[in-house]
Fold each of these.
Amino acid sequence: MSQEYDLVVLGAGTGGYVAAIRAAQLGLKVAIVEKEKVGGTCLHKGCIPSKALLRSAEVYQTVKKSGDFGVETNKPTLDFSQVQKRKDGIVDQLYKGVQHLMKKGKIDVYEGHGRILGPSIFSPSPGTISVENTKGTENEMLVPKNVLIATGSHPRSLPGLTLNESTILSSDEALKMETLPSSITIVGGGVIGVEWASMLADFGVDVTILEYASHVLPLEDEDISKEMKRALKKKGITIVTDARVISDQVEEKDGQVTVPYEHKGETKSVSTEKVLVSVGRAANVDDIGLQNTDIQVEKGFISVNEHYQTKESHIYAIGDVIGGLQLAHVASHEGIAAVEHMTGDDDAQAIDPDNVAKCTYSSPEVANVGLTEKAAKEKGYEVKTGTFSFKAIGKALVYGDTTGFVKFVSDAKTDDLLGVHMIGPHVTDMISEAALARVLDAAHWEVAETIHPHPSLSEAIGEAALAVDGRQIHG
């Protein structure tokens, strides 16, 4: 038996379910196919659970330092089972919220694995969705006018390095740890690797990072990367950059995992209780029926145009599965843009990646929008920069954390704001001001003219904007 829909969404992650809600708001009859739980990776295996753990690590460190604030406590102890229980409670509450949103929008949710069929008795065009449900009953057939592929991604590994549930982990398995290891090697010093390194070190784990590039957070502005390396080393984390892991020679013996690597022409190794592999994510494009369509896959990602249409104009794709910025908030906005286009809005805007705020929720936090200083110069801009440290910000002193700074990158000829980069306390909550400035095509001096409240951490933004022209007040 088949069911007809205006839109069927493959994947109920952040991008998929937000797109479904927007489609329902526009009057479409919508269904979602999800083989696990609505909410996807972000809610169940990524953004939310990892940030819950990071918050517990932050609180643990705050309590340990409470004497600095005049608050005396007994020696704090960490109950990791309670940490995990709190994390699971947050995820469960949000999961129920998403389920409610599906019911509110009258969106049908099909539990099972969805595959795109080619032309058939159901439709002369590719796009009918066969749902293989988890109950083992006959497949259900969904016949939509449009399809949105939002199947997300999964953690990558390295050749010869087999992930397991106990010693060699991806972030998926690490989130399930019932006890903390005494030591861990993190392969990869990007966003996820740095967040886990920061968290585990704050929990008291002996952490080593092996990063192939010359800096941790290699996509950040170099000044930010250098400051992060300094901050992580202060936590006691061992960091080896320019390290090529010899993944097919990783060995397990006597409760230790030994990871060999090449560094400056020498072969070395590190042995720890566990290994966390954090080397990026691969798109979920296998076994979803793409071979039954004209959809093109390039370098592992589905190719789309500026409206997120594939080569099959009635089949759209968004989120991690199309590459680009693999971020939950990006997937959500791509989903909205795709749905608005398929409903006739030809002016629906594709996302400009240079206007997207990107965050790392480690301690210290990192946030940025726009071009790094290096990228701006490579694009041919003559740049001028302004930097202001949190050490001169009263609220940072009150808060008890003066790590980091705010950096502005501007066009020396036009004063156009090219990029803003931050590292320090609560910068992930501050970056939206800079993102709005980018969207409005503001100049750094216009940001400087915005009156920032005192005392506040955001004063560093105004001072950094002033510093571009050497006009900072408190530095």
Amino acid sequence: MRNIDAPLTGGQGRPRTDAPVRAPVAPGRMPLVGHAPRMRRDALRFVSGLRHHGPMTKIYIGPRPVHIVNAPEVVRELLTAHARSFDKGGMFDALRIPLGDGLITAAGDRHLCHRRLMQPAFHHDRIARYARVMSERSLARSAAWEPGTTLDLVPEIHRLTLDILLRTLFADPHDPDLHTAVKGWLSVKYHSMRLALSPLHAWAERLPLVPGWRPPDPGPLRRLVAVQRRIIETYRADGRDRGDLLSMLLLTGGPQGSLTDAEVTDELITLFLAGTGTVSASLAWTLYEISRRPEVQRRLHEELDTVLAGRPPGFEDLPALVYTRQVLAETLRLHPPSWLLMRRAAQPVTLGGVRLSPGAEVFFSPYALHRDPQLYENPEHFDPGRWPPDAAAKAPRHTYLPFGAGSRLCIGEDFAWTELTLALAAFTTRRSLTPADTTPVRPLVGTVLRPDRLLLTARPRPN
């Protein structure tokens, strides 16, 4: 792995000087739209290829300039040494319309305050309680998959993760209005990244009457908020801890007070976004990778047989499921759900030798970083063995970012690891998986990176 503490160099290996420089503009900029067509055509290849143009590259989304960080040394600068000089990317201002103003879009002191208030909801003891729901629902969903049959697991996994999320968020997850509102909101939230990367949106900020530009529909968010407010009123009147995440959000408090009803609804929506898209995409990619590799499945089965001995997986089994964790870690390297992350300079700052003014937009791609051949040997190859057993839970900081990093590290990371491990065990313990056809799985690049389809055949394992 490359030494990210080594001095930065400019082109042709020249040492970086202290004098600020300008980042080169990536080739392929087009009038009016900038690099947006290239992003739309193949965003993953585009952001991965930018490393060849230097540690920092400038692109344009319509008229909006954006600096892309390509080097791990500069990512480290961004997330540590200069972390206080940056806030959430400016394009998240527009995302508040479909996504609300929870941890994903909140900025500055609001973000830090809410993160501290929400932390108890993800304490070790609470996750252990949620793990029972994760295991039970995963086993129930996988049991419905008859041996010898073929399923598209993408919608199946989406239903599973939504089911788990509703059962951990709410003591009574069967409210019909809640289900309808959540599904309506989920149908529009997947387009949020397209909004952030749209040249029309960039021009609309300067010219509000741009033809063809329509702001996102706030209706689904309003309907979801209304249902949540009704549920919150019931919880407030009751006042007890029902053992779910909503109870913990309502019981939070500290020197800066507690969350208001409006703030609780925003954070619930944050959990809907992270708890469905991120986990479902990661589980689908994991099943995709192991279905193509009999040797990986064999080792996975051996571990599950030894650790579980035929019983359902539980929270107490997680430390012993070492190879299972390695398989998940490698999947998250190749297919990080958060494929593109954004920051905005809050003050003048020099990053990677480039001088940035307040308001300057900065992107960095965990997907591109995870496939950098200077960081990972043979980076396109799926190899769980690249994660040593004693390091599988502690991957290198700033070069492995499936759940973000720094103050923006996903608050539900441990929740996600627990759900992924238990669900993977439930789907693979008693069956072998094989691809149903040879059609390549296509990544859909949206708010998260997810497969377009996943046709797998389940075959019973020999006794």
Amino acid sequence: MRDREADGSQEAGQAGGAAALDLNLLRTFLAVYRTGSFTAAARLLGLSQPTVTTQVRALERQLGRELFQRQARGVSPVPHADELAARVVEPLDALAAVAGPGGAAEDHPPEPVHLAGPNELLTHSVLPGIAPLIDRGVRLRITPGLTEPLLAELRAGHHDLVIATFRPRGRALVSTPLSDEEFVLVASPARAARIGGPARIAAAGPAALHGVPLVAYADDLPIVRRYWRHVFGRRLVCQAAVTMPDLNAVKAAVTGGTGFTVLPRYLCAAELASGALVALHAPDDPPINTAFLVQRPGALANPHVTLVRDHLLRTARDG
């Protein structure tokens, strides 16, 4: 035990010495750790890829340990890299917040905040509430898209915050639950009447929808398949009559009488309240999906990223 403690003290001393001797090496290490790639870290830091590789190797020689395992695509941290990242992330991020990328923070106005997420959620739940941020001088650059590619871009430094439809794996990104969305099976009043309404669905189950056109987000029917599995306990065997990778467009088609679909309740609450859409089923346990607000810890060096993050979390909590 004494030898192990001694080794741990020596490692801590080495890491502390590396930080005291050259913070740039640790800054580069942390960028590679967060992005999982020398190339992505180079873009994030504004360096060449060979420079990043050289700096990481210099730090590995200084510590006497390999920090990353090289893979066909990118790199993965070894356990010692996890330990080193945990020790240096807070002081390096705090230093970046004070100094900024080019000197004293007060000498440079904060950079725009790059926020990304699902188009429908951004349009419905985020954009209507950004006025207080803009009044405080925040500049926003908003990108719609699917969660997986947006998270890859976040790791590469292209975004500061991403609203994700699932929690990302790994420790390089920090995620916080943002909001829950409930899914609803809906159709227009005329189409619902032809089906027999919610009573028919309750009695006959999904068989009542046999032959009714399905309108969906994509051919693989991710939202509808999840609803079938969770609510009806069976596999969906149906092809979409219409697909459109925009839930607002799906809602418009179904409101016009094209067929049925499954939508997040927040997106169709107004139509359900006005009668433009009818909920075809009211299960005791509707499927719920949690959205997460995901950030690169280093992005908090920009104080406006913190403003946007806290605003989104507060708005979701109060809403």
Amino acid sequence: MNMMTGNTTVATNGYAISSWIDNAAVMTDLQTLLKLPPRGIAKNNMPKVLDYFETKCQTSKAWADRAAQIIPGGVQHNLAFNHPFPIAAAKVDGPYMWDADGNRYIDFLQAGGPTLLGSNYLPLREKAKALIDECGPVTGLLHEYEFKLAEIIRHHMPGIEMFRMLGSGTEACMGAIRLARAHTGMKWVIKVGGDYHGWSDQMVYGMRVPGTGRREATGIPKGATAYTQEVFPNELGSLRRTLMLNRLRGGTAAVIVEPLGPESGTRPVTPDYNCEVRKLCHEFGALLIFDEVVTGFRVGMGGAQGYFNVQPDLTVFGKCLTGGYLMAGGIGGRKEIMMTLAGGIGTSSKRAFVGGTLSANPLSCVAGYWAIEEMARTNAPVLAGKAGDRLTKGLKEIISRLDLPYVVYNMGSIVHLQTSAVLLMSMRNPIKLMREANARKHVMEEMGAAYMAHGLLTLAGSRIYTSMADTDEIVDDALNRFESVFKLV
């Protein structure tokens, strides 16, 4: 079944997103939240929250102290940061995670999104173990599941004729941009401010906060971002003007977008946005790149491109490919473009060079093939989306009943819970950004700590990923825990 939204047709049958959000209403609510003083955990209640970590998480604290002595900042991935210190995971299973002290949490982090089937999914684990027993994780030679994985991706993703496996989402974005430049002969690349496309030199630009340009580009020469540009979210007029200017300066190689909006829909796109970007790219001869690192398969087996009925020229994947297993990334797209990535030694034809001796290793490819096969067999995207709908509906009711200004909405199994609105700030109001960003960020961190102290693991206290493992019973349990936290505000 398809649903008309304005002039755009979006798919609903077989996709996690039952209906698209009312963008205008959500953005109005978010801007209202941003205008209000932040309301977090009451000062007299915060000691109760912190006491949980001091008394119940002593092993995690000791390990975090030990890590801080040898690891810069004590953490090696941003997902691991939690206030007041990182929690050490010891076991995961389906909807749950247990820390090193034996405390159990409802796992709404889900490794940052890739474990749509639920953590440590048994049928997938058995396939991975069999591969290790028979072949080992790496060989350096062609393995059967390399082409099987490419075939199953092509079967489900409408915009993909050929696929090349890489090691991460960052590598995939690097390769896609290089490929776009090689194919078009143009240099300029336009991204949406606030989008995250990995940490390569050219993409550490306008990250998380629109309008910040090179603010986070410490250690990166200016030349590396000389041909990277950003436009503000949802502003098609600004994109058109930038494309017109670039046409006078040699042309635009690619426009790269997160199809739900920056940071997986933290600033949600309007329903027709991707379709209109597609038209602009066609008009100006630029390639359209969809970053489906999170949305691939989580939105539906056809990804965001299937849901919005928009075919990008290139698609980049990351952790979504393998159901949580390692070395997950890749580029897919039209054959005429993808052939510029042809590998081999000493080729004389024009090519965009990418490498990686661990790319397409047997373990990653087996995990990827069977993860996608299981997602399709179990209808995991839709089941996870229904859990996201149920959780969102319940959170809205609690927030309304307690008269809190918080904003919650979801795109299927990606649930956004905004309590401080720090993620809605931009350089269009730099004074407010400088004055309030740290305080609002700390409110968000304290909310995340309170969730964890009540057995809820989230992404930075502001994003929730549901999985197929989240039954009605688990969602209802989570809602009771969220309500306990909100009563501490």
